[in-house]
Design a protein that fits this description.
single chain, two-stranded antiparallel sheet, globular
């Protein structure tokens, strides 16, 4: 499982010219689910993301987490994070999980974030979405469960 985590001032997701989700201060997560990923990887990433100390404290040090400041989380499924661009000019997505499995893990990930007490919003799985963010910092991190 791979996640691109961005600290944002605000973010929203639009589908067919309608905003379906929006958050204020918090984290935007683009989530790629790979073939072979399980709930174990989702649990690990949720815990890692909500406890990452990437928000500034009163000393202007990145020392606070999403949970510490009671910020919001926006999660968008992003299978293109798993693109293999090594050969040719067209990306291969063979590493991405099948849509049914990916959607189950995506929903599981969101559910675990909600259960942890974080206000969590989401995109629409397999929809053509416009995602708008105001990246604060900018702070952008890439997390990959295959690297642990």
């Amino acid at each position: 499982m791979k996640a691109v985590v961005q600290r944002v001032k605000n973010a929203h997701v639009t589908v067919e010219n309608t905003i379906i989700s929006n958050i204020g201060n918090g984290l935007m997560v683009l989530l790629g689910i790979q073939e072979g990923d399980t709930e174990k990887e989702a649990d690990f990433l949720v815990e890692k993301i909500i406890h990452l100390r990437i928000f500034e404290d009163d000393q202007e040090k990145m020392n606070l987490s999403l949970k510490d400041i009671k910020a919001e989380l926006l999660v968008v499924s992003q299978f293109t994070l798993l693109a293999d661009c090594k050969k040719g000019r067209r990306p291969s997505f063979t590493k991405a999980a099948a849509p049914d499995r990916a959607n189950k893990l995506y929903e599981y990930f969101i559910g675990r974030a909600i259960e942890s007490g974080v206000v969590t919003k989401s995109g629409q799985f397999q929809a053509l979405m416009d995602v708008s963010i105001v990246n604060q910092g900018p702070v952008t991190l890439v997390l990959d469960t295959r690297d642990t």
